[in-house]
Design a protein that fits this description.
homodimer; about 300 residues; alpha/beta; TIM Barrel; 8-stranded parallel beta barrel; 11 helices; about 40% helix; about 15% strand; Orotidine 5'-phosphate decarboxylase (chains A, B); decarboxylase (chains A, B)
């Protein structure tokens, strides 16, 4: 049995790519060739048609970027918004990513305790049919984390220091030992993570740390060397390759950097304007390749 | 337009009941007359039949307890576990609760930021078809909370001090100002809540505080008087009516106390053993009535 984290690291090295392609189907950014904007006048009534358009879009993005990434990350909210039709598109997207040899990190930020957390794990990390990993929220403590780690072939990414402007509200509160809440959360996760270490020395319990706070990212990496990171906030949110360098060890291991809009909707960027909107897949491939190389260029490989 | 919180308080007073009936369909606790246990040998293959059994069970529980409660709280994980069939049962359950004049608090503990949090709000608090309120997780800060409050007819219940044994791991960390994280979270929520106050003086931004920590519950109530509480942990988890008294103001307002298993599966209790298992609805009604009276008995009404 191969640990989730070892499998992820192996795929990253096969592809020589440390990026993660987010699949966040923002409806108002879709090419007209994929989604007829008339459907959006009454999205509740057109959920099925919209969900089908998203599936088509996702398959094109996956097909186009599979060469440049080990993992894709569907953001669940965008699928849940479309009801059962959206969830069907989510599962078909997951299946398509697997067909293309990719791992799937489901971004659902689920959290609950005991039997309820276990029910979420059964829903999204089921041994036969679930995704490979899921984002979770650690606020409930240990009870809310270990139920997601029972199957060693699956992983969980706990929010640690998030990329958004208001992440400081709770995560940066100062503790009486001179540390901040996110540092205490880091040490708390690292303690649990010890019980789920793969052969690579990284744990199936991973963490989410934003590229938008490079100083904190470097501090957290030094504090918890066996925790693998998912790093959002590159590109659209302002983080660059130099900002995330500290997340990687000397072997170039330790993190994947996510980009969603910057790849999905690359066709809208000035630099790809020579491509027609229906060639959004080609633009996504070029953006993914560029990002892959950008990250690799700052590593001492 | 009536604020969610005013609507909730009005319904509570109509029913003179401060309980919330959780709808947590634990499959292994279901009566044999509702769910054929043979289906559970391969639940992934029998999702549709299991989801239909749950819908029947929920309707019976709602029908039986509607007289004794203002609000029901489906725990999303149990429905999500059953895929799209489970989600259809969830929405049909919500609709049935509305038909019976009840409010619905969806327990999904969702959390994300900006446009993604907005997508969750559209999924579960949609003006025409969504639930009345949703539980959320505050770890991401303000960005992760306000998107759930845009529609004043809807409410959000943020986790504050949860009822589980390991809630102390993060929530009780000591801050450099002598307070604990949950106290800082309480003040943080109260600040946001000011912008969403109804005529009753309570806010559409409510909080989840466990009955299992009565000392903390009383402290938090004193700290943030305009925040309404959802209080889990009564009964099965060990909290009693005296433990939750401090949550209520002099008018008997300020909280609903949740019970899930203690009502749903009351038919399994020693005290209702004279009722046959297929009379689980009757047992649930008796347990709900008893709990309602138990809570009211400690209030100075």
């Amino acid at each position: 049995m191969k640990y989730f984290i070892d499998n992820l690291i192996e795929k990253i090295e096969e592809k020589n790519s440390r990026i993660c392609v987010g699949l966040d189907p923002h409806l108002n950014l879709m090419p007209a060739s994929v989604l007829d904007s008339a459907l959006l006048k009454n999205p509740q009534e057109n959920q099925k048609e919209i969900a089908e358009a998203i599936l088509y879009f996702n398959k094109e993005i996956i097909e186009a970027t599979a060469e440049h990434t080990a993992v894709v990350k569907p953001q669940m909210a965008f699928y849940e918004k479309l009801g059962t039709a959206g969830m069907e598109t989510l599962w078909k997207t997951i299946n398509y990513a697997w067909q293309k040899g990719l791992l799937v990190l489901l971004d659902g930020k689920r959290n609950d305790i005991g039997s309820t957390a276990k029910a979420y794990a059964e829903a999204y990390l089921h041994v036969d049919s679930g995704a490979d990993s899921l984002t979770i929220n650690p606020y409930l403590g240990r009870d809310g984390i270990t139920p997601f780690l029972e199957d060693k072939t699956k992983g969980a990414f706990a929010l640690l220091k998030t990329s958004n402007p208001s992440s400081a509200d709770i995560q940066d509160l100062k503790l009486n030992n001179g540390k901040k809440v996110y540092e205490a959360v880091a040490l708390f996760l690292a303690k649990i993570a010890e019980d789920y270490l793969g052969k690579t020395g990284y744990s199936n319990l991973a963490a989410v740390v934003g590229a938008t706070y490079p100083k904190e990212l470097a501090e957290i990496r030094a504090l918890i060397p066996s925790i693998f990171f998912l790093i959002p906030g590159y590109g659209a949110q302002g983080g660059g390759a130099k900002d995330v360098k500290a997340a990687f060890d000397k072997q170039g291991r330790g993190a994947v950097i996510n980009s969603s809009r910057g790849i999905n909707f690359a066709y809208r960027k000035e630099e790809y304007k020579d491509l027609a909107p229906q060639n959004f897949g080609k633009a996504a491939a070029l953006a993914a390749k560029k990002m892959k190389n950008d990250i690799n260029s700052v590593l001492d490989l």
